[in-house]
Amino acid sequence: MKSNKRIVPKRAIDLYPDVSQWLEVFLKDRFQRAEVDVHSLPHTPISRFLSTYDRGSFLGAWRSWNIKVDIVGFVHHTNKPTDLILVECKNTKLTLAHLSQLLGYSRIARPLYSFLISPVGFSRSLVSLLQEYHRHDVLEYHSEAGKLPRQVIVAQWEMTSRNLNRHTMIGGAGL
After folding, report:
1. What is the CATH number of the domain that holds 144?
2. Measured between alpha carbons, how far is 91 from 119 in angstroms, rounded to an integer?
């Protein structure tokens, strides 16, 4: 008899290797002419990492980014600034507090993509806000004229397939 029990890691850090590998493949598929770099940085502020990182061209006030994000991806383009990707991993149900934290980080750093993921799914309050009340506007962290606004992408992580469950994905218009 098959068990329906969901596999949940004891610590969020246990998700990092698989999520990092997924992010690298995702970015390489999307940006085939660019170089992709993915780093697990849960204990290092992005500003400190970038001060010793000898790759990429970064616009903005990156020296002020005293924020710690679980996984950071970089897409190095030939003739334009490097794109930043943020991923926060949780091993509990995703909450409004988790979303607020990543939303704040995303408003500061303005990444190309910002993912909030968990293998456990979403809290009732997060589901209520995003699905029942259709408040996808709270996911937005950056907008430019003529482009879709950038949004935090909230999704469930599938432990067995080591991938995002696209059926649970909220946000990320145009992804």
Report:
1. 3.40.1340
2. 6
